[in-house]
Amino acid sequence: MPSIDFTDPRSNRLLAALPDAEWARWEPELELVKLAHGEVLYASGSTLSHVYFPTSAIASLFYVMQDGASAETAVVGNEGLVGISLFMGGESTPSRAEVQNAGLGCRLAAQRLKDEFNRAGPVQHLLLRYTQALITQMAQTSVCNRHHTLDQQLCRWLLLRLDRLQGLELKVTQESIAGMLGVRREGVTQAAIKLQEAGLIRYARGRISVLDRAGLMARTCECYAVVKTEYDRLLPDRLAT
To answer: Which one of 40, 150, 163, 228 has the minimum C-beta count within 10 Å?
Structure first.
């Protein structure tokens, strides 16, 4: 896999897809930021001040219940942005966005993004295509969590992250995975053991190393392919200029 300069804003697929005129307007206003593990980019019910375009970081979107319980509805990495409620007219959202894999990203002031979206040009079309892909991921996650086995869900969860990372290793605890999938930790432990015994992963001390990505793809349910196909159909390649 070729090395990617994650300090370059255009290592994010959406930013890379901006036409030259739009990029010239955006570039001076994009701020490169370090995103720490566990950092909350926006909380449930809060008004967003910025949108974030991850380059090497990964954020999870959680739906938060009234009793504080939550589950992951989608993952966002270098293919997209965090903060679609800004241009969808809601200003705030009942979900929460939290950094799960530390790394880099760029942020843009909320009003700046709204102004660009309201120009009704190529930026609007690009962001709406991204939103459709994200909605597909959210819908498929809901279906997957209802109808498929936990080890299939874990395979999907791992593959979606591998698509957004360089390398085949993730730093994550089983407790964190359980919280994101909305299941008990014991269930994640059993699912991870099955995948490890099948030679697909190695898990130790909060790290998961994927040993056989093709094997994960063969073992997962249809949901991963549905989501990946929709992202590939709607969004340009990450390295597009």
So the answer is: 40
Question: Any idea which residue has 């086995």 for tokens?
Answer: 149
What does residue 149 show for φ and ψ, rounded to 5 degrees? -70, 160
Neighbours of 135 (CB within 10 A): 13
CA distance 189 to 80: 30
Structure-token match 């002031």, residue found: 109
Q: Quick one: CATH architecture of 148-227?
A: Orthogonal Bundle (1.10)
3-class secondary structure, 112: helix
What pLDDT does residue 228 have?
93
For residue 239, the model assigns a pLDDT of 38
Is residue 41 a contact partner of residue 98, using CB atoms and an 8 Å limit? yes
**pLDDT 10s digits, 23-67:** 999 999 999 999 999 999 998 878 889 999 999 999 999 987 777
Cα 83 from Cα 96, distance rounded (Å): 10
Domain boundaries, the chain: 9-120, 148-227
- Region of 182 (left: φ > 0; alpha: ψ -120 to 50; beta: rest) is left
